[in-house]
C-alpha cells in the first residue's frame, strides 16, 4: 500500500470532531465497508506499520486492492473535510470575505460588494497577502468597467500588490541563498557565496512589507555570522522578531516564515548561550498568543514554544525541568512536522540531550544515529550535525560501549573536513571521553574540566551527566554502531 504514510499522517492530524464527522459520512454515503475499516485501523495505530494493515485485510476481497481502497479513502476524506467550516482566523476570514465579494458581484449587488471589497483589500494589505489583493482587483474590475476614477484605484491596488509580490520573491531568494552560504561556510569555511550575497545585498531599499524587512534582517544576520560578528548577528535577529511583535497577525498570514525565524533564533541562542535571544522569542510568542491567529498557526507556534522551553531546560537543568523534557518527547513527532528541514536536525539533537539527562541513553543514541545517517542534515545544518557526534559519544559511554569509543571518536575527528564542524570545546570533550575510555578518570575531574571550558550546546549536557554519574558503567552492553 504505497503512500500509506501520507494517509496515516492525514488521519492522525484530524481532530476528534473531524474524525466523528467522517465516520458518520462514511456510514451514510460509502457502500464499501473496507474504506471505513482502513480508516479505523490507521486511526488506532500509534506508529505506522504496513504489515499490521495487511494483516487486518488478509483473506478479504480487498487484500490485493489496498492501493485502490487507500486512494478512494483519500478522496473521500478530502471531500468530507472540505465541507466542514473553515478554520477561524484573520487569513481564513479574509479568504471567506473575498469569496463573499465575488458572490455578491455575480448576483448584481454592486454597492454592498464594493463596500466589503474596499474593507477586504485594506485588511489584505495589512496581512501582506498580494495574491488575495489581485483576486479582489479582478472582481473590482467587473463591478466598474467604465469608471476612470475606479480604474485608477484598481491600478494602484494592483501596482502595490505587484510590488509586494516582487519583494516577497526577491527576499525569499536572498534568504535561500544565505542559508546555502552559511551552511557552506560552516562546513568548508567557504565565503565565496557570502561575498556574492553581500555584494548583491548592499544598497538594498528597506522595502514595502514587514515580511520583506524581516527576511532582510535574517540575511544580514547570516552575513554577520560569516564575518565573525555574532553580537551584531543576534541584534539583526531580534530586530526581525520585533516586526512580528509589532504585527502579530503576520504569524497567521506567513506562519512558515515566523516558525523558521523563531527556530533560527532558538538554535543561535543555544549555540552562543545567549538567553537574550530566547527572551526575545518568548516575547514574540506572547504577542502572537494575544492576537486572533487561526488554530493551525497556534499549533505551529505551540511547537516553537515547546522548543524554546526545551532549550531553556537544557541550558539551566534542574529537577523542575523534567516535566518540560517529558512533554518534548511526548509531542516530538507533532512538533517535527511544523519545522523546516534544517530545524529538525537541531530539534532531534536537543531531544537526544533530554533523553540523556533523563537516563535514557539508548533512546538518545538512536536519535543521534538518525541525524548522523541523514546526509541532508550534514550539509544543511553542519553545526548541529557535529553536536550529534558529541552526544552519540556520550550515549555510547553511558551504555558501557567503552571498547568501541576510542575508535569511534578517532574516526569522528580524524578528517580535516570533520574538524571544521566542531568548536574547540567539542574537540576537547570528545578527546576527554576518549581518554576516559582508555583510563580510569574520575567523573568529578571530568566535570570540572568540562565546566571550565567555553560551553557549547552539548558540552554542558555532557558535563552535567558526568557530575551526576559514575563514569565507569557497571556492565558493558553490545554497542550500536553510529553512521
Distance from N terminus to C terminus (CA atoms, Å) equals: 30 Å
Rg on CA atoms, Å: 27 Å
Number of strands: 0
Structural class: mainly alpha
What shape does the CA trace take? Answer: globular
Provide the low-confidence segments as ranges. Answer: 470-483
β-strand percent reads: under 5%
Pattern of helices and strands: HHHHHHHHHHHHHHHHHHHHHHHHHHH
Average pLDDT, to the nearest integer?
79
The DSSP helix count reads 27
**Helix content class:** over 70%
Largest sheet data: none
Brief overview, please?
The chain is 76% helix and 0% strand.
Keywords, separated by commas or semicolons:
27 helices; 483 residues; 0% strand; mainly alpha; globular; disordered C terminus
Describe the structure.
The protein is mostly helical. Among the domains are: 79 residues, no CATH class; 109 residues; 144 residues. It is built from 27 helices and no strands. Helix 3 crosses helix 5. The longest helix is centred in the middle third of the chain and has 41 residues. 40% of the residues are buried.
